[in-house]
Write a structure and sequence with these properties.
A hairpin with a 6-residue loop joins strand 4 and strand 5. Strands 2, 4, 5, 6, 9, 10 and 11 form a 7-stranded mixed β-sheet that branches. Strands 1-3-8-7 form a 4-stranded antiparallel β-sheet, with no helix packed on it. 0% of the residues lie in helices and 59% in strands. With 123 residues, the protein is an all-beta fold.
């Protein structure tokens, strides 16, 4: 059974920092692409940051302020958020894109999601 358990959300003033943690179980963590997404009220879920191996990518809105990292030994992915802005307010979700080969040999990814953690930035 796959589980992604997030923690670390909360309320912070603009300019402050928060760190999110996601612990995964039931997947081959080291080969999975791990990411953070967020969804604000009335908006679609959007990518925040993603990490495959040692490489990472960020949404333009968070570049230079957020840092994604992972600890493969402990099946954990982190999101350090600095210089937070009110527009960062959202529910943040941990995502695991788990690769597997089909019978024909093609590579496909299956997405798993955490339950989400609320981040609220006050102005």
């Amino acid at each position: 059974q796959v589980q992604l358990v997030e923690s670390g959300g909360g309320l912070v003033q603009a300019g402050g920092s928060l760190g999110l943690t996601c612990v995964a179980s039931g997947i081959t963590f080291s080969s999975s692409t791990m990411g953070w997404y967020r969804q604000a009220p009335g908006k679609e879920r959007e990518l925040v940051a993603v990490m495959r191996g040692a490489g990472s990518n960020y949404a333009d809105a968070v570049k230079g302020r957020f840092t994604i990292s992972r600890d493969n030994a402990n099946n954990t992915v982190y999101l350090q958020m600095n210089s937070l802005k009110p527009e960062d307010t959202a529910v943040y979700y941990c995502n695991a894109a788990v690769p597997a080969r089909t019978i024909s040999g093609k590579l496909r990814y299956t997405d798993y999601w955490g339950q989400g953690t609320q981040v609220t930035v006050s102005s």
